[in-house]
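Quick sanity check, Lipid II isoglutaminyl synthase (glutamine-hydrolyzing) subunit GatD:
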Amino acid sequence: EAENRINVIDDRVRPAVDIVSLYPRDMNIYGDTGNVLVVAKRLWLYGYQPVVHYVNQGDAWPEHVDIILGGGGQDSGQKKIQDDLMARAPQLRQMADEGVPMLVICGLYQLFGNFFRTIDGDEIPGIGIFDAETLGKTARLIGNLVASSDYGTLVGYENHSGQTFLHGQTKALGRVTSGEGNNAEDETEGAQKNNVIGTYMHGSVLPKNPKLADFLVMKAVEHRYGSFTNLADSSMQAELEKLDECARQASQVAQH
Ligand code: GLN
């Protein structure tokens, strides 16, 4: 028995990594919660124990937080979460400075900038992690989105009326090669500051972009344990490779 288990992770001693799924009720369109599933699955396959905390407005903040994932939402969803997001802003900004990885999509990405002025003229304040502003426009930017980035070619699906403009030193996540991205003008897509990534890519984005997923996963483990070690045994490694091959094929299809 002991010999059979020699290359198998003991599930009782998997190191825990705590994931916050932020606003899964009101900010989760086009399947963005799939990003949480991908991070949890990849952590598991690297030998870690993912612990997912679903945090909606008013919910307690967990004791440990190693990574934060938040999805897109309609303007109405953004209004529902804005007060709670403002209340959590100092903590989120501090975590961003400390290198906690975060992934925010579309509607939540917009609120990680300075503000979103909707087409109705309402101004929803943002938490200013990105020096960026978002302006509602009449034309919606809809369709497949492809961008080149430090994480390879990223593919996703965009659908937004808000157009985001980056200021100052704010670094884009990628350069658009197909679709629109942040806005209809400058061919930038998304933003990155420290380990915080904002993007317009739904899809959800992480199943098709495993390099981006691994960046977030590895930063989460580093945040918790100081460095990332791949604890996968051969069967887990084989499953990771299959997932990556599926992603590679799906990404190629999305680019044609
Ligand atoms: N409400 C925002 C917009 O349309 C975000 C939409 C989204 O998250 N897809 O710009």
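Posting the structure with no commentary besides this: Residues 29, 72-75, 78, 106-107, 159-162 surround glutamine (CB under 6 Å).
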